[in-house]
Design brief:
The complex is a heterodimer of chains A (148) and B (143). In chain A, a hairpin with a 2-residue loop joins strand 6 and strand 7. Chain A has 3 helices and 7 strands; from the N terminus they run αβββααββββ. Chain A is an alpha+beta fold and 148 residues long. The chains are: A alpha+beta (148), B alpha/beta (143). The A-B interface holds A 18-19, 22-23, 25, 67, 69-72, 81-82, 85-86, 88-89, 92-93, 95-97, 99-100, 103-108, 110, 112 and B 10-14, 16-17, 20, 58-60, 86-93, 96, 107-111, 143.
Chain lengths: 148, 143
Amino acid sequence: MKENMEKITETMRISIFDVFEKMFYIFLESLDDEYQEYDVEAVISFEGAMSGEIRILFSVDMAKTMVQNMLGLGEDEIDGQDIEDCSKEAANMICGNFLGKLDSTEAFNLSIPTYILECSELPAGENVCRMDFDSDGGNVGVVIEVNG
Amino acid sequence: MSFNVLIVDDSRSMRGVIKKIITISGFKMDQCFDAGNGKEALEALVGNWVDVIISDINMPVMNGFELLGMLKEDNLLKEIPVIVITTESSEKRMQNAFDLGAKGFIKKPFLPEEVKKILYKVIGVGDEGEYGEDNGDDEDFDF
């Protein structure tokens, strides 16, 4: 399990860098310590050769930066719907990119992402890995729970 | 000659990004329709002819595979080329999309030039062809 989680963690790190650079023009840096001030989250689950759930945690600054960069809008032009939409799309892209890199031969079923205004209690255990990132635009975290 | 494009994605942001990329690329786009899922796409096709459809797969109500299946069953609509643009890029998923009639596949996240290239390829014209307006700077999309 430990070896598997290390592979999952490293694959997710590559995927989240890839998505943020290509779609949001944001360059992330890994944090050694857990960031505790996230404001919103997007959750997506997947089923296939492996099943589980991925939570993407955003500081509100990061969520706004993503919308501004992706759509080329000014801060006063974006609304809550834009932030929700962009957060869910980020979760969708990160999950799909991650699973494709983990095993391109397997087909996974992805759920429709959901958006949560206040971050919920995060799972813990040996089947869970967490990463936190920083950038000029704010903070983002990812929690992956693998069920089997 | 210009082309009508239908963009199908449940993300309003993604629809906006794709439309912007097509516009910036210099592609001769006439009307751009959009839809939030396959069902809305079929409704948009009633009374509106489009030359190419760009569709996501993972959508509520009617997903991209179901949309491809519905288009394939229609003698008129099956002629419209469909580009699938999705995060789900496994070999099985891609093959499934092509089996259902998709003509192109773009994996999210994507670079603007990838969208431009596949669009020209599927429509059947080159960057510098009759219908494309090459800005001479493929790698430089300024958002």
